[in-house]
Write a structure and sequence with these properties.
mainly alpha; 6 helices; about 60% helix; elongated
């Protein structure tokens, strides 16, 4: 069981949805916490259907092509409740793979390292601005957004500190 499956089950608890609708919602509203691509989404939906957690039906509106509509089953509801409780009490360490190059930062000149970290900081600040301008969401979804925002703020402060240290190293 994965948090991605938890996400799909949680969304389908509120309403039945077709695959495109699920993907669009995730890309527009939840891209900050997951990077589920369409092929992965459909793969997971198929697996969840095989497990009996969701059902699929066909729907056609007007002249549009048939589309698959997904709906949670009672088994899926039970699975969701179990997964939610298990996931909420579990801590998974966060790995910062972008930090691996920092182990080799002393292989660069101080100017070069500063330039690259400034570029990284610009990208981070752009992401931070997006998060700061994200509309407030109802209920506890906002907590998820705030968690991401706090992470980005901490990362920006840390990068400022590293850049200051590099400046001090250059002056020595």
């Amino acid at each position: 069981m994965t948090t991605r499956e938890l996400l799909f089950l949680g969304l389908l608890r509120h309403q039945k949805m077709h695959g495109y609708q699920l993907n669009e919602f995730i890309q527009q509203d939840l891209a900050i916490c997951t990077d589920i691509k369409k092929p992965t989404a459909y793969y997971l939906l198929n697996k969840m259907e095989e497990r009996g957690w969701i059902t699929q039906s066909s729907e056609q509106i007007g002249n549009r092509p048939l589309r698959r509509v997904y709906q949670i089953t009672p088994t899926g509801e039970t699975t969701f409740q179990s997964m939610l409780r298990e996931s909420m009490q579990h801590y998974s360490p966060t790995y910062f793979e972008d930090d691996i190059p920092l182990a080799f930062l002393d292989e660069l000149t101080t100017d070069e390292a500063s330039t690259y970290l400034e570029t990284r900081k610009e990208q981070l600040l752009a992401e931070l601005e997006i998060m700061q301008n994200t509309p407030v969401h109802p209920g506890t979804v906002q907590w998820m957004l705030e968690h991401r925002l706090r992470h980005l703020q901490a990362e920006a402060a840390w990068l400022d500190e590293v850049l200051s240290r590099l400046t001090l190293m250059e002056e020595e």
